[in-house]
User: What shape does this take?
Amino acid sequence: MAICPFAEWHPITGPSGAYSGGPFKIVHHTTEGSTAQGAFGQFLEDRSDPHFTVDATTIYQHVDTDQWSRSLRNAPGGVETNKDKAIQIEMVGFAGRPKAKDTLRNVAKLCRWIEAMHGVPQDWPNGLPKPPVNGNDPGGHNRNAATWDTKGGHYGHCHVPENAHWDPAYTADEVAFLMRVNPEAGVLEGVDEFPEIPETDPDLEGAVSTMPDHSKVD
Ligand SMILES: [Zn+2]
Assistant: This one.
């Protein structure tokens, strides 16, 4: 059993089963919507719940991190995706929009817990995510299957083999903030670094996705 002590337990489609391989990795997604509640409805409809959904105020856990979750496409043959010890986080927001510190801070807090609990290194084996170009898919993503299969670390949905979605599309600064912040240890709490990242996204509600099929995994 691996339940995050500061997450709100919120099952959606229920337990799954044991992983088929490893090593442990963290997969970053964006929900492509403005609210956690909206995402939960999509996950239920499409049977595509991740381990965690994170917004500016709350970290929700849907699946025990010792079992696989469901937000990645997995083609017949090839490598396993969801079952390859991929711990998946859906950040409420949009690949095509800049991220805000309030939500990134919660994702960072969760990442530090996953890294410690499951021995995930602070590396990005298939490279950093690519930021959006005018709100759209920048293309050219590295989805190297051998890396995925053999190296633990952080991946975006944009780095997963057999998948076409391009989230989370973090900028280099958003990644730097995400990897450095450690709210449990007080690192960067209240520190005015990364001034180019807004504290909050006042236009999140009402924003529209440029990847509206994100919750569909088939
Ligand atoms: Zn995704």
Residues 29, 71, 157, 165, 167, 214 surround zinc ion (CB under 6 Å). The longest helix spans residues 101-118.
